[in-house]
Design a protein that fits this description.
The protein has 10 helices and 11 strands. The protein is an alpha/beta fold.
Length: 332
Amino acid sequence: MSEHTTETKGPLVLAALLTAFLFISCANGDEGDLDPAAPDDSNLSDEEQDENGEDEEPGENGEENDEEGEEEDPEKPQPAPLPDYSGGDCPPMSAGTVAISSGANQRQVHLDVPDQPGGAPVLFVYHGAGSNAEQFVSFFRTAHIASTYGVIVVTPSSTGLFQYEWPFLDHEDASVDTVLFTDVLACLDQQYEIDLARVYTTGFSAGGLWSTYLMMHMSEHLASVAIFSGGTGGMASAYQPPSWRIPVLATHGGPTDQVVIRFDISTEEMAVALVDDGHLVIVCAHDGGHTIPWDIPSLMMPFLLSHAFGVPDLTILEDGLDDSWPSECAIR
């Protein structure tokens, strides 16, 4: 190595060391900005945090993040778990009349099953006093409901043990038919894995009074209800606040809607109590007496299916009732 080279080596090395020191210092400063624990990180914009992996959108962090999102989302409650089927092994839940053991009783339910029953919603239809399931299959057009709306429709036959077909009177054993309700759901779920967040009930007259009872006492399994000439008070069930938010469509036929009780009075009493408790209620009050003057499926099914368990669709409160609703209907 030449003497000239030896003499210039010292300054070159010093310059190189100084440059390296400055580079390392700047690099360390940048790393401090990226440190999740750094105090200045709270001042980063959302865009900067996204770029640095600090503020991931839900679902970007795998299953753990999804689970945390579900736990924090108050808009998606889950219905209560179903009790085990009380009758042992479930019967085949095929279309037609199904014999099913429930509690201490042998029962019959009529099923209308859509072409694709897997994951389907379920609708219960309860017949009136002096009537039967076969008549209400025709009256409510349950086969049409199943095929048009993709819903499994359950039309139970009453036991004949109670004064008005269904045990809504205070001294009667309501568990006879609440157990049937959960038994049918359990067996349908076993066979079809039904949508338990979309279970509905409806009925007319005594069936409307029983659907009223289910609304008040089994709301942990119901998304919404349609009650035709039902209600509370008098000889009907006393009002009890449902434990979950539940949208209600109710109808009555005015002062002549009377069979033992005045259904206009019982329906209006129920509507007032529900509204006071913060529930969405639509009442359709016609003057035709003890009847239903509209096409039942087209009146109730769009309303029912717009709601999932614990998550009522409240856009109707902002938009009002559109032209598809009868003029006799109003939001309370």
